[in-house]
Design goal:
This protein is α+β, with helices and mostly antiparallel strands and 105 residues long. It has one domain: Roll (Nuclear Transport Factor 2, Chain: A), CATH 3.10.450.40. The chain is 34% helix and 25% strand. It has three helices and three strands, in the order αααβββ. It has a three-stranded antiparallel β-sheet, with helices on one face. α1 crosses α3.
Length: 105
């Protein structure tokens, strides 16, 4: 398994972008992310991460899905080869880069 695939697998579990197993306690945020993905309101996490790593090689550190106004923004943190933390903000529906939300400035 590649490092990216392993990281995505962990993130899928963290963000609930996979079905909740029977009998497991459901987290409302995980359910929301799963529902948004199923409805096509947000891009798959793998698509977003692969797009960022194509532009900025490095190690995936964290991904957050934030509600902003009428939509959602993915915040992706990458540790670049020089050891610098890079943050990318992407419209969760289109994958296009957007400015950092006000609370992230």
């Amino acid at each position: 398994m590649t490092r990216l695939a392993a990281s995505l697998q962990v993130l899928v579990l963290v963000f609930g972008l996979a079905p909740v197993t029977a009998g497991a306690e459901a987290d409302p945020d995980h359910e929301r992310a799963w529902r948004l993905r199923q409805q096509g309101d947000i891009l798959p996490l793998q698509t977003v991460v692969e797009g960022v790593l194509t532009r900025q090689p490095g190690r995936l550190i964290e991904v957050e899905l934030d509600r902003i106004d009428d939509g959602y923004v993915y915040e992706v943190e990458i540790l670049d080869p020089g050891g610098n933390l890079r943050r990318f903000y992407l419209d969760a529906r289109s994958g296009q880069s957007v400015a950092a939300p006000p609370e992230h400035h």
